[in-house]
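Troubleshooting entry. The earlier prediction with nicotinamide-adenine-dinucleotide gave an output that would not parse, so I re-checked the input for stray whitespace and re-submitted. Clean input:
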Amino acid sequence: MADQRVVGVGLISVGWMGKVHSRAYANLPVFYPELGIRPRLVMAADTAPERAQYAVDVLGFERGTTDYHDVLADPEIEVVSICAPNFLHAQIARDVAEAGKAFWLEKPAGRSADETQTIADAAEKAGVVSAVGFNYRNTPAIEYARQLVAEGKLGRITNVRGAFFADYSADPRGALSWRFRRELAGSGVLGDLMGHLIDLTHYVVGPISEVTAATSTVYTERPEMPMGSGTHFAVVENGEMKPVENEDYASMLVRYPSNDGASPAIGTLEASRVANGPRAEYGLEVYGTQGSLRWDFERMNELQLALNSAPHVGYTTIMAGPDFGDFSVFQPGAGTPMGYDDLKTIEAKKFLLAYLGQDSQHADIKDGLAANRVVSAAEASAESGRWERVEPVEGTSAQQAVGS
Ligand SMILES: NC(=O)c1ccc[n+]([C@@H]2O[C@H](COP(=O)([O-])OP(=O)(O)OC[C@H]3O[C@@H](n4cnc5c(N)ncnc54)[C@H](O)[C@@H]3O)[C@@H](O)[C@H]2O)c1
């Protein structure tokens, strides 16, 4: 057994993501014992006292509090998970950085690119490690897809198609949680689901340079649900109707510039939180001159692959297995599936390795900023009706596949 490095962990907000982060820390030494990293769950904060108490009683934290400033002040806490609603991300992340602690921030980093820039600046000034919760890039099938693209197995990438379609608010009685209010969430499905898709294409294909977008709000009113109760999947009967302030659906046409003068690859990316049919159908398709691949989160352990080296076959379905990413850490053989929590365990590993000074290719605040800049440009385009340029972010983990 390797020497054990105990890392004191603080958690801010104990909603869905707060629970998932807590389980990821707890799972880390079980799945990666050879790393010798032992997270110690020191303190969890939530303004809902019963959630702070749940963190102690069920999730295994030593202490609970209703004031996140207690987490900042605790010298035993080295790293902090920030799982609060979006409107609190920038303030809390800046506070955590100023307290000299590393942070793992849920997506979207800030409500806008400008807000995320303030987080990136604070992290840089304080010299602390950051991570952003773009979990889908940790999927072993996606890691394998990224490798195929990087090795040129698909040839030059010509176009990308992605659709992140969920039904969590397809019911018009679906709760008006903080996600539907501009002040609390920022954008709607653009920040919530499109941000994930943008990051996934950045990771597998390369950075987006231009965008044009259209958005719509399908249900303009919903029954209100108080903060700190239920989940965003909740349906509220006979609740007071309040206005929805951001978009339910977004569609974007984007360009991935080439690094060698070839034409940019074109992407068509869509996201919806009101789709009837798909439950969490998060699909990515990448087309190249030598082959194509496609993946969908609802079948996240599968990758469909078509290569010109095996012509007239079309797509072949490959099951993720021990050769794909971190698969073998979780299951010994192909066909036995991994799940969503496992992606967060991988994310916790990458974050803590980065915190301990190792390069883990994790998504950090720069990747969060890159996604935010595309979302902000898409919002501007939906308003102006024009193509909008996306200012590049240096030093992200995006890969450049177009023209390679
Ligand atoms: N990576 C992913 O796949 C994924 C999935 C879901 C949510 N998210 C992101 O995670 C974040 C949280 O989402 P969620 O679904 O867990 O939300 P949630 O509504 O389930 O939980 C939010 C929690 O924050 C608490 N809170 C509110 N104000 C607070 C304050 N001042 N201090 C401390 N706690 C406070 C609430 O009481 C609640 O318990 C969001 O930014 C969301 O976009 C990411």
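This one parsed fine. The pocket of nicotinamide-adenine-dinucleotide is lined by residues 12-18, 45-48, 51, 68, 83-86, 88, 106-107, 133, 135, 192, 227-228, 231-232 (CB under 6 Å).
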